[in-house]
Design goal:
Shape: elongated
Order of helices and strands: EEEHEEHHHEEEHHH
CATH architecture of the largest domain: Up-down Bundle
Radius of gyration: 20 Å
Number of domains: 2
CATH topology of the largest domain: de novo design (two linked rop proteins)
Strand order of the largest sheet: 1-2-3-5-4
Number of helices: 7
Helix content: 25-40%
Distance between the termini: 46 Å
Bound molecules: zinc ion
CATH class of the largest domain: Mainly Alpha
Strand content: 15-25%
Largest sheet: 5 strands, mixed, barrel
CATH superfamily of the largest domain: Recombination protein O, C-terminal domain
Length: 248
């Protein structure tokens, strides 16, 4: 059968065979066996690498998928040009691996991931801001979209003022001035607008905008906490990125 998918994990087994995890449009996340994929005369070496998006010709015997051939659609080559971009792209792959389950389809999340790899490879904005935009949009698709248009407790419509807006991780949204919560975060109107933009804009314009360093910093601050709260996974690549950024 022919399926379109993104290689989100690869690992060598035995003499040079490979297992890859494919994040596919048609059947979600699957494990696929690629025989002799480490041998270069075999075309599968390059086409089963991490970040390859392609059309995979696979067969299924018993419970094992095997790849016969691949037609590469995009390899996102320039992701590998610098270690920081590569690390952020690897984080996106680890995120997908952790938050998805086999047997479920994630069409929108796959599209988002492809747009994100494209944005990282083109370096149109900083990889750090790309990561956090990706997370917020991904959380929407995973069922954790924050409520930003009305108070998440009393449902009163949001009214813009000059004051900062209270935001609750636990409740998953903004809180009006009348409702009580113990540990709110405070977000600016600009961050509030930015979050709404990220949740609603078409994917093709998701990474095409300009923001000040201050708004970017505040946005990253709240999204980092929001993601940790809802995903609860200790990402190895995130630790690596943190160490790397401390050195740069
Ligand atoms: Zn309220």
């Amino acid at each position: 059968m022919l399926i379109k998918g993104l290689v989100i994990k690869e690992y060598v087994v035995g003499e040079g065979d490979k297992y890859i995890t494919l994040f596919t449009k048609e059947i979600g996340k699957i494990q696929v066996y690629a025989t002799r994929a480490k041998q270069h005369q075999n075309g599968l070496s390059a086409s089963t690498q991490l970040f390859v998006y392609g059309q995979f010709n696979i067969s299924k015997t018993k419970n094992t998928y095997r790849v016969a051939s691949v037609e590469i659609i995009e390899m996102f080559h320039s992701i590998r040009e610098d270690i920081l971009t590569l690390s952020y792209a690897s984080y996106i792959m680890e995120f997908l691996l952790e938050v998805t389950r086999e047997g479920e389809k994630y069409h929108e999340l796959l599209n988002l991931s492809l747009h994100t790899l494209w944005a990282l490879s083109k370096k149109i904005i900083s990889p750090k801001i790309i990561k956090h935009i990706f997370e917020l949009r991904a959380l929407k698709y995973l069922g954790f979209m924050p409520e930003l248009t009305k108070c998440v407790i009393c449902y009163a419509d949001f009214c813009e003022t000059n004051e900062k807006i209270r935001f609750s991780l636990e409740e998953g949204g903004i809180i009006c001035g009348k409702c009580q919560i113990t540990t709110p975060y405070y977000i600016t109107n600009s961050v509030h607008y930015m979050m709404q933009y990220v949740l609603a804009t078409p994917l093709k314009s998701l990474y095409c905008f300009e923001i000040s360093n201050k708004v970017a910093k505040d946005f990253i601050y709240i999204i980092r906490r929001y993601t940790v709260y809802y995903v609860e996974t200790d990402f190895k690549t995130a630790h690596f990125i943190q160490k790397l950024e401390e050195m740069l």
